[in-house]
């Protein structure tokens, strides 16, 4: 009877040893693959970022191609660009330029103050 108990203890010990060896091998494999998994995650994030940049550049390229096509084939577009950006006009044409809207006074008091800046209160 004593022999059986001691044998059961050894069987129990061997099973636990096998389990611990299995766990240590599994941990060793994970320690090899965790850096690779992290690297793959970083590369996927970088790929996503690059694909967004590529899409933005592709859109910009289409817009520039369209603009180039208009510059090559559309005289109205060229005329509009010359008028807007180069301040050009046809001979005999008078060009009026208006300043963009700025501050608009709300009340008469503000209008008087803007006409006579000396009447403005001094700020400390």
What is the mean pLDDT? 85
Number of strands: 0
Main sheet record = none
The percent of residues in helical segments reads over 70%
Element-by-element helix/strand order: HHH
The count of helical stretches stands at: 3
Radius of gyration: 40 Å
Helix and strand content put the structural class at: mainly alpha
Q: For the terminal residues, how far apart are their CA atoms?
A: 103 Å
Shape: elongated
Strand content: under 5%
Low-confidence stretches: none
Overview of the structural elements:
This protein has 124 residues and is mainly alpha-helical. The chain contains 3 helices and no strands. It is elongated. 0% of the residues are buried. The mean pLDDT is 85.
Which key terms come to mind for this protein?
124 residues, 3 helices, elongated
Task: Summarize the structure in short.
With 124 residues, this protein is an all-alpha fold. Helix content is 74%, strand content 0%.
Topology of helices and strands:
Blueprint: H1 2-73, H2 75-86, H3 108-115
